[in-house]
Amino acid sequence: MNQKNTIGIVKSKQFKSAFPLVLQNGETLDEYKLTYETYGTLNKKKDNAILVCHALSGDHHLAGRYSKKDKYPGWWDTLIGPNKSLNTNKFFVIGVNNLGGCSGSTGPKTINKKTKVPWGAKFPIVTVEDWVNSQNALLDNLGITQLAGVVGGSLGGMQALQWAIQFPNKIKHAIVIAAAPNLTAQNIAFNEVARQSIITDPDFNKGNYYQTPTKPKRGLRIARMLGHITYLSDDVMGAKFGRKLTNKKIGYNLKTEFEIESYLNYQGDKFAKEFDANTYLRMTKALDYFDPGNGKTKQLSKVFKKIKAKFLVISFSSDWRFTSERSKNIVKSLLDNNVEVSYAEIAAASGHDAFLMSDPKYHAILETYFQKLLRKS
Amino acid sequence: MSNKKISNRYDFSIISEWIEQDYKVLDLGCGDGGLLNFLKKEKNITGYGIEKDDENWLKSLKNGINVIQMDLETGLSGFEKNSFDIVILSKTIQSMHNIEIILDEMLRVGKEIIVTFPNFGYWRNRFQMISGSMPISKELPYAWFNTPNIHLCTIDDFDQFCQKKRFKVLDKLILTNNKAIQFMPNLFGALVLYKLISK
User: Fold this and answer.
1) pLDDT, tens digit, 9 for 90 and up, residues A312-352
2) Percent of chain A with pLDDT over 70
3) N or C: which end of chain B has fewer CB within 10 A?
4) pLDDT of A377 over the 50 cut
5) What are the extents of the domains in chain A?
6) Cβ atoms < 10 Å from Cβ of A185
7) Whole-angstrom distance, CA of residue A80 vs CA of residue B57
8) B83/A335 touch (CB, cutoff 8 Å), yes or no
9) Are A364 and B64 within 8 A, CB to CB?
10) Which helix (H) or strand (E) holds B89?
């Protein structure tokens, strides 16, 4: 194993668009900002850049800490850093907060210059395609004409895939982890329950809650709790919590008694404090709408015809929200087009969340693939 | 467990001779990717390996092979009909459960197929059996209790199988210690290579 170093103290930056962005829903954003972070150094040829796309609740803060007092590092700190699997001594790694997000990029809670109030409900529903377009604008600004790779898990994996479709000449490798070519009905159903819990929260106020004293925290926390259940496997939940009680005895009341309840409540509370409900709604919509193949395998293979990137596709055996079968659908359509692809199904217990874990086998695969990128670029 | 550890370059070069320049190749149970890399160098082939074992999968990736992790026993459903010039199953068939399914699948996906396996009828194997123990050899390096090999056969067995399945044998080569065997191959041949198509 390589010596593992942390990236240390990091600072986020902001990119202000020079051009308007035409969105898939027909609207145009006259201007927008993207908050992003970079790690490592862009080389002279500018060919060592790796874009890391975040999933539903992620952001641009991939690695390192903002200050020494910071309790947690960025969300993929286990992977990204000097001499880590995604080695920042070799690669220039970029994390972007997606458009519509709530961590600095233009989104529902941003002040709309025209109306002088936060966008709120009026902020458009953005799609994976829109994100890729906006990320591309940032790369133009950084002078990067071709990415060595785009990496992402879950919704982030969908962006990596979309990059290969949308800008075939601008991406050399796509690393698509725990993703799918589109969501199943069951997946959309989960998202709809999450959305309904937010929308029906009396504090939601049709999405215009930034000027009101209360925020739809109840809805957001239930949405998060539901999400959390689906990101874990039955096995890992059983192993971690089982039927353990927080107190010694059953109380025959409606208080939180089982440890799993307490865990979900804690996660829900934490998330409701940090995240924005309008952003959550938009992220789930982007997931639901993503469907480059229009629901058809043959169409997906057709769309993949233009792909020039090489692929690494990874799934996790216990992931029931984005199953291995769905990753195999992607692989199948890549194979139909003779795209260079490797596919691994990792035996991991953690469910969909496994893509965030630092399983040694998983990271060894990524590390090997990134090293391969260096050899060829 | 893989039988590929005993790979000798000679059977690679025979396989290479049976393959045209720039062929699109699928190697089932590709181990560390050694054969595909050899064919890349010799014949500029493109293609993929399939490997179930985690360690071998990673070795293949390290060796620059496009490698798909899947279980061959479930067939080749991710691959279209006639999408490869050749599909290879090298020293793997003897460890598979459903031989008929995989050979039918190979012939669906590949225009031609190559199958290689250790000949159980090799005299050294027979001799060990007569002496009262399960054979252990260069081609069959496992003890009875840890062998992955469950479907061992002789050359004669396989010939009959090909007849029954209406597979046409395009090429056949029998090797012992890297030498081609002509005389009584079912007795004196250790490793056998077939090139087949559907009749």
Assistant:
1) 999 999 999 999 999 999 999 999 999 999 999 999 889 99
2) 98
3) C
4) no
5) 13-183+292-376, 188-284
6) 6
7) 23
8) yes
9) no
10) strand B84-90
Write down the pLDDT at residue B3: 46
| A345/B79 CB distance under 8 A | no
Chain A residue closest to B81 (CA)? A336
Angle A206-A228-A105 from CA coordinates, rounded to 5° = 50
For position B6, what pLDDT does the model report?
Answer: 43
Strands A49-53 and A92-96: parallel
Question: What backbone phi and psi angles, to 5 degrees, belong to B89?
Answer: -125, 95
What is the architecture of the domain spanning A188-284?
Orthogonal Bundle (1.10)
Residue of A nearest to B71 (CA): A345
- Whole-model pTM: value is 0.95
Reference A352, options A244, A195, A231, A196; nearest CA is: A231
The pLDDT assigned to A3 comes to 42
Closest-CA distance of chain B to residue A202, Å: 48
Architecture of domain A13-183+292-376: 3-Layer(aba) Sandwich (3.40)
Please give the structure tokens belonging to residue B11: 């059977």
pLDDT of B193 higher than 50: yes
Question: Do you know the residue count of chain B?
Answer: 199
**Residue A6: is its pLDDT beyond 90?**
no
* pLDDT tens per residue across span A191-233: 999 999 999 999 999 999 999 999 999 999 999 999 999 999 9
Predicted local distance difference test score (pLDDT) of residue B44: 97
Task: Supply A100's token pair.
Answer: 């519509």
A344–B70: do the CB atoms touch at under 8 Å?
no
- The secondary element (H helix, E strand) that includes residue A28 is strand A28-29
**CA B30 to each of CA A179, A311, B25: distance values in angstroms, whole numbers, following the listed order:** 26, 19, 11
Contact (CB, 8 A) for A74 and A10? yes
pLDDT at A361: 96
Chain centre to alpha carbon of residue B112: 13
Helix (H) or strand (E) holding A156: helix A155-166
Give one DSSP letter per residue of A241-262, joined into a string. Answer: TTT-BSSSS--SSSS--BHHHH
Return the CATH class of domain B4-198. Answer: alpha beta
Interface probe with B: pick from A315, A342, A359, most Cβ of B within 10 Å: A342
Q: How many CB atoms lie within 10 A of CB A231?
A: 23
> How many CB atoms lie under 10 A from the CB of residue B22?
10
How many Cβ atoms sit within 10 Å of the Cβ of residue B11?
A: 20
The token duo for A184 is 């199943």
Q: Where are the domains of chain B?
A: 4-198
> Given B54, B65, B78, which is nearest A335 (Cβ)?
B78
- B19 has pLDDT over 80: yes
Q: Has residue A4 got a pLDDT over 60?
A: no
Q: How far apart are CA A241 and CA B138, in angstroms?
A: 50
